[in-house]
Amino acid sequence: MAEEPNRRQYDAAAAQTKWQAYWADHSTFRPLDDGSKPRRYVLDMFPYPSGDLHMGHAEAFVMGDVIARYWKLCGYDVLHPIGWDSFGLPAENAAIKNNAHPADWTYANIDTQARSLHRYGLSFDWSRRLHTSDPEYYRWTQWLFLQFYRRGLAYRKASYVNWCPKDQTVLANEQVVQGVCERCGTTVTKRQLTQWYFRITDYAQRLLDDMTALEGQWPDRVLAMQRNWIGRSTGATVRFTVPGRTEPITVFTTRPDTLFGATFMVVAPDADLAQELVTDDQRAEFEAYLERTKQATEIERQSTERPKTGVFLGRYAINPVNGDSIPIWAADYVLAEYGTGAIMAVPAHDQRDLDFARAFDLPVTMVIDTGEGDPAQTGVATAGDGVYVNSGLLDGLANKAEGIARINAQLAADEVGEPTVTFRLRDWLLSRQRFWGCPIPVIHCPEHGAVPVPEDQLPVELPDLRGAALAPQGTSPLAAATDWVNVPCPICGRPSQRDADTMDTFVDSSWYFYRYCSPQDEKAAFDPAEVAKWMPVDQYVGGVEHAILHLLYSRFFTKVLFDLGLIDFQEPFQRLLNQGQVINQGKAMSKSLGNGVDLGAQIDEFGVDAVRLTMVFAGPPEDDIDWADVSAAATVRFLQRAYRLAADVTSEVGADPATGDQAVRRVTHRIMGEITDLLEIRRFNVVVARLMELVNATRKAIDTGVGPADPAVREAAEFTAIGLSLVAPYVAEEMWQELGQPPSIADTTWPTIDPQLRAAEAATMVVQVQGKIRAKLTVPADITDADAEAMALADENVQRALDGRAVAKVIVRAPKMVSIVPAK
RNA sequence: GCCGGAGUGGUGGAAUUGGUAGACACGCGAGAUUUAGGUUCUCGUGCUCGCAAGGGCGUGCAGGUUCAAGUCCUGUCUCCGGCACCA
Asked: pTM of the entire structure?
């Protein structure tokens, strides 16, 4: 049945079209940038342009939008920009398939997403839009790379790297998840390659230390994950002399106090050290073992259940504390990349060492008696506290900290070791053998080696390759583009080659939030003066999937920019909000499960406001939303109810609410006060619940109370519209217009709450006798303690509960509660 | 194993500093409107005993502190997320 035009109904589709145009025409969400207001920067993690927006985007963006719109109403000059992280593999794969250029697919998808973002009613400043794949952007990614290079923070190194056989490219450590490629799920293998790295390990301690400032501002789990990833561990380095070798072997241990129990050593088979130590007699066996190790996938290698394997290298080392000669083995349970790639094995007190000792019949010496039995017999290594035995200077001691201190002192005195800190974090491998990324601005000259491209020749633009020319070959497609690759050396002019790899796309996204501050700058990556005005970011919003990669890299970049003197702060994001996922029927949406929910279809059916409001109301922002558990249809009904309040108000614009009904005002101010508090602590779902209460209360006031002409009802309806504008901006604009107010509601101000009105609502007072509630009395909000007590004792239910007993004690918390303790 | 988080009705979830457990919704039930279905509106809805008035129980489990515990303390179980042969 066709609806007649009705001012008591709002038409979601028409409102969307109308207000999108209005906001664009009036630059409603472009910051004034004139210094007249305090500034705030709200940043959403920028999307990757793979197809249209999905439900997950919708949830993330609405959370950021609530904050941005709230701050704008509170009188801040809000920067809320948007752009695209537009380099990356899917574009390249699409180009190969369609015999096209990756840019075709990329920019077409960006257009699609941009239209959807407009429709979704987000308060973005579109004038600052950027794409990381634009030469105007990646020119400065290259420039930043060169600054890192000059500071010695970008370097080339040959080593075994993670290799994805499907994508035919190397991966950063952070991109290998449980032994498989984070992107395509293929099992990752190892390859020896010479690649570019960023020296993020130099910043490990600072990255760790500065997290204390983020405590309470970032989710605990993100901080925990980063700490975990950085993996600081304290211990000692100990040098073991090796007969027949000038250099000692250095190991790292967290338990130097167990040194007397070190009965053998183990080196990583793929470390250079193993190659060098192995005797000729053992070489054949070692080489065979090394080959097997290299072929083992990460998954096999990481399996804890896997039996220990290894090979004796034919050499011995001297235990520096007791002079014992101990054999040196190679085994793949020792990692070449961690510590020094060699360990002292203490089988009695480390389960891995004990498993190895038992497998190869090596001696086990208990040096800490924990009373749990000798590990050599039980097969269970003991790691707890106990009394030192067989430990020379430590014998009899029962304190681990003291034991470590004493042995460290001894090692220092003998000049064979010292306290040391080691990190799990490894340098960031940034080369990728792919086309659709930022070219590394380096030219390899036979004479001068790696030569930076002069800054005035940036950007090094990508050549026009398409289709099959982009197919994975194990080397970068750029290497085959001879016209592009072959260039003269910038120093000597000799025939040289460009570096044919591109950068990890996480480099692009590690600084985009700086670019937003001066997006059209042609002279610099960013204008330090603009950055000083807006940054650091006040609120960052995005998925927890970036808890380590993107956020750690961005923090690293920020510290380097600080060291370069370009900025004066060391953390880029002051507050972080991780919104949850949108799932359906208990599971992540996926094609194979057939449980996908299409955002566009939801919007077509319910309207943008209802979809946004449903997302916000579903639960706390960090929680996952199961779309099967929520009802967008119910939200549509609520929005219509809210709209009808505005349509019903009959008082004049500007009618003084002070002349209106005070009971209505008390409810309005109490609820809006609560909403303000809830916004500060980001409980947006409860904000919506309170708005529903306000709508219900105002409805009642109109229908069965003071009626639509009371100025207090106008105030309630206006406050409702303003509160609603954060979440459901289109219906809020319609309400605002219906109330006779000039557009846009986004240009009004957040209501001032009258604290007296807020506090003055009548309260329900609970009376407890012996801790049990015996009465609920309605009392004035300003009741005195004495009156409250008297009222409580006068209540007949209370008297019945007292049952004639005398009152021993009364605790009064007027106007909420009176607690009576009877005498025994 | 280590680190982080969470356990509240049939469901999603509320509950600043200890002070009415279950706000607000969904769902469900009853009624009104409607030719019917849907919509809309009203009332009810933690469990339990009771015709009722009014009791008893109740925030994973077991203790404790307190006039008062979802909230604090001790122990314990379960689930989710991250890391993990990291020396």
From this structure: 0.94
